[in-house]
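Help needed: design a sequence for this.
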């Protein structure tokens, strides 16, 4: 068998994808960063009701409006990150409506990425 035939034969062999456990075992030295669930951080049924009510009253993205554009707000953002502070979490003066794009930009700038602690 020549090299071309061997390469073709090897390429057609199906390789089983690694399981989650196998992938994790390869990362033994990487620290796993965890955080409380969304519900534990306050994003529960009460928040979902408050969020919907806020977006009904404030339907436009404030950042888009400042750029002279009209875009629907889909996220109620905490202007100052609450970091677990329940009083700041529920302070409606600390809320603003943002479109997904502007919320993602703000999150990336403040947290250094998405889903960071």
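Sure. Designed sequence:
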């Amino acid at each position: 068998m020549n090299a071309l035939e061997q390469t073709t034969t090897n390429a057609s062999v199906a390789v089983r994808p690694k399981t989650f456990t196998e992938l994790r075992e390869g990362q033994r030295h990487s620290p796993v960063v965890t955080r409380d669930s969304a519900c534990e951080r306050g994003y529960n049924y009460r928040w979902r009701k408050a969020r919907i009510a806020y977006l009904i009253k404030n339907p436009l993205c404030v950042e888009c409006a400042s750029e002279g554009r009209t875009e629907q707000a889909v996220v109620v953002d905490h202007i100052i990150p609450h970091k677990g502070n329940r009083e700041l979490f529920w302070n409606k003066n600390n809320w603003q409506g943002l479109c997904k794009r502007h919320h993602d930009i703000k999150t990336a700038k403040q947290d250094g990425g998405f889903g960071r602690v």
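The longest helix spans residues 45-57.
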